Amino acid sequence: MGVAIKLPRLGRRPAAKNSTRAKSESKRRAIKPGAAQPTSRKKASPQRKPRGQQVQGATRKPVATAEKQPRSFHWLNRILVLLATGIVAIAATQAYLKLQAIPVERISVTGELEHTQTAAVQDMVQPALSGGFLWADLSRVQQQLEALPWIHEASVRRVWPNALEIHVIEQLPIARWGDGAFLNHEGEVFRPSKLEAWQGLPQLRGPQGSAPELMRTYQRLVDLLKPVGLSVAQLTIDERGEVEARLGGGQRLVIGGVDFLARINRFKAVYRSELAGRMGAVESIDLRYARGVAVGFSEPAGLSATTSKEEKA
Predict the structure, then answer these.
(1) pLDDT confidence of residue 28
(2) What does the alpha-carbon distance between residue 89 and residue 293 come to, in Å, rounded to a whole number?
(3) Range of the domain at 293
(4) How do residues 234-270 score in pLDDT, each as one tens digit?
(5) Residue that finishes a domain, picked among 123, 154, 170
(6) Is residue 5 part of a domain?
(7) What pTM value is reported for the model?
(8) Nearest to 100 by CA among 157, 142, 162, 156
(9) Residue 195 within a domain
(10) What CA–CA distance (Å, rounded) separates 109 from 168?
(11) Is 234:245 a contact under the CB 8 Å cutoff?
């Protein structure tokens, strides 16, 4: 008994593959570059995405649109600024003109005035007030007041809205200087018109420029002699610096130019011990000695404290 065996056909499958490749290549050749490819009517089945991966949806490309530029108002701002500046300038000018037109309507004078009249002060400062309240020359007013003989110091200030306040300090005469002037407490020379009321003041004499130093010497001598009850009527200093005083009783006191304090203390000691009861007969007292004083009497008298001229310093 025989067995039939069916052998497979070799070489047919490769032929099929080759035919398929040929068809695909012919299709590729048929498609021109840039031509739209036909789409299949069948919808491709969506492929499943792995878990954890988000599905991205379709996005539209933004359409480029022209941006609108905002309108510029810089010119309007500049106009407003210029307008505001003009208004401020006009207001300031009007205020300035009004202040300039304000006159000085009241002048008050304060201070202890014994030799200067208030009305005279007010009349003197009027020419300096021609510029009105705002432009009144206060420094000129002050200089005019301090030029008056009896005015030692003056201060002037504005008092709103239309007044001036003047404070005056008068001279305080301490002594007469020479024959026609006075010295104040600072040793400054001033020359008032009326001298009669002050003739009782002590008189100081000296070379030009020596007034301040001589005033200090006078005040020092007055303080030293006050405890013993003596006063000073006159004090002079010469070109060599030699100081000489005349006491209130008319006695001549020669002090010299050195050792001022030591010589006055020596005189006070002699005065207390020997001269207190005899000053009416004393004409002169010379302190320019090393160990004592020389006393001259109007009548001869003995005095143990008197030294000889050989011991004169």
Answers:
(1) 55
(2) 84
(3) 175-311
(4) 999 999 999 999 999 999 999 999 999 999 999 999 9
(5) 170
(6) no
(7) 0.57
(8) 162
(9) yes
(10) 7
(11) yes
